[in-house]
Amino acid sequence: MSGVVVIGAGQAGASLVAKLRSEGYEGPITLIGEEPVPPYQRPPLSKKYLLGEMALERLYLRPESYYAETGIDLRLGLRVTGIDRAAREVVMGEARLSYEHLVLTTGSRPRHLPAAIGGDLGGVHVVRTLADVDAMAPGFRPGARVLIVGGGYIGLEAAAVAASRGMQVVLVEMAPRILQRVAAKETSDYFRALHGRHGVDIREGVGLERLLGDDQVSGARLSDGTELAVDMVIVGVGIVPDTALAEAAGLAIDNGIAVDAQGRTSDPAIWAAGDCASFPHGEGRLRLESVPNAIDMADCVAGNILGRGVDYVPKPWFWSDQYDVKLQITGLSTGYDRIVTRDGGAAVSFWYYRGDQLLAVDAMNDPRAYMVGKRLIDAGKSADPAVVADAGADLKVLLG
Ligand SMILES: Cc1cc2nc3c(=O)[nH]c(=O)nc-3n(C[C@H](O)[C@H](O)[C@H](O)COP(=O)(O)OP(=O)(O)OC[C@H]3O[C@@H](n4cnc5c(N)ncnc54)[C@H](O)[C@@H]3O)c2cc1C
């Protein structure tokens, strides 16, 4: 067996193999995934699926039959343990499989709390896989007390689901404000107020000192000395790119598996895409943790395996659903120096600028602001702040 072997049957891996086939690649394709289920979408795990409003089958990116029908050898529940670059083979315990092109789409892994502070107690959960969410779902009972550690999007989405299910929710964020790493103060303020209206007790500038309990978590001591009684804990303290195989194989690593502009690693027969990969961007490198990046980068790498020679140009966007608010984000806000607010009552958006240049938009229940902002940012154009700030003005004039 040779052809293309893809390690990691998540969003990027599944997109890549489908693209290869739809673009006419006729050689053997093998997609290997450690999880026992066909490739699925993760975003609903902390949204509709956790709420119990989405069936399992709807998570699947494609019907399971698709892979056999298109001649893709999907091997599930199988962990690749090594890469023999000299022999061009992947190693799975005793078994080996040769490749002409190898693609690493190994994604990322959630950070866990150390066992020394109770991170290994029963009732302590992370939110990455279907198995993680299925394990925590029975604890989502009205009246149950949940502590959420971390005020990023995953923690806030879990808090929204828990509050919607009638649970008592405390969320602690060690930084001075929720979403500090990814958003402006205005966006943090918006979501703090939203959660406050739903009864979530958000404590900022407060860390977790340790979890309490014998086998099962029963309490938590916070850095301000407070002790809480809890029934379950959800940990949303970030993810790390899964570079283990690449590192062991001696590939270059730099905030993820380092690839060139076309998605090739430091070994030209090995490519990488999605959460695990960092690519050249401006003066440095960029690694994105989002579905659109996983899909677009996988598509680009598939084209380059077919010899297209195209550079990956990210068009970053992201979304988050909390209660009845849909947040849509376009662009990268890094380096902004001011925010322009467009407040249309139910529809609110925050526009990030550096000097006169529009960098990013956070739009809350405002699909038009998102759409206009995205078109401008993708085209490298800016937006007149006076028009943006005037909620009565039609944003479409900005598109010229
Ligand atoms: C709860 C949750 C909510 C999210 N919400 C959003 C959202 O609203 N919007 C958005 O844009 N993004 C969201 N994301 C992020 C998005 O899901 C990821 O960016 C995306 O899944 C990345 O795709 P990937 O293919 O790179 O990695 P993954 O989807 O993580 O897939 C990697 C796969 O590789 C497998 N693997 C790793 N090592 C091996 C090995 N050695 N052998 C075999 N298999 C291996 C893993 O088991 C995994 O299944 C969310 C993520 C989570 C967890």
Concise structural overview:
It is built from 10 helices and 26 strands. It is 22% helix and 30% strand. The chain is globular.
Identify the notable features of this structure and list them briefly.
binds flavin-adenine dinucleotide; 400 residues; 10 helices; alpha/beta; 3 domains; FAD/NAD(P)-binding domain; 5-stranded parallel sheet; Enolase-like, domain 1
Can you give a write-up of this model?
This protein is α/β, with parallel strands linked by helices. It folds into three domains: 4-109 and 239-305, FAD/NAD(P)-binding domain; 112-235, FAD/NAD(P)-binding domain; 324-399, FAD/NAD-linked reductase, C-terminal dimerisation domain (Enolase-like, domain 1, 2-Layer Sandwich). The chain is built from ten helices and 26 strands. The strands form seven sheets. It has a five-stranded parallel beta sheet with strand order 3-2-1-7-19. A five-stranded parallel beta sheet has the order 9-16-10-11-12, covered by helices on one side. It has a five-stranded antiparallel beta sheet with strand order 22-23-26-25-24. Helix 1 packs parallel to helix 8 (291-305). The longest helix has 15 residues, at 291-305. Residues 7-13, 32-35, 42-43, 45-46, 79-80, 105-108, 127-128, 154, 242, 245, 274-276, 289-292, 294, 318-320 line the site of flavin-adenine dinucleotide (FAD).
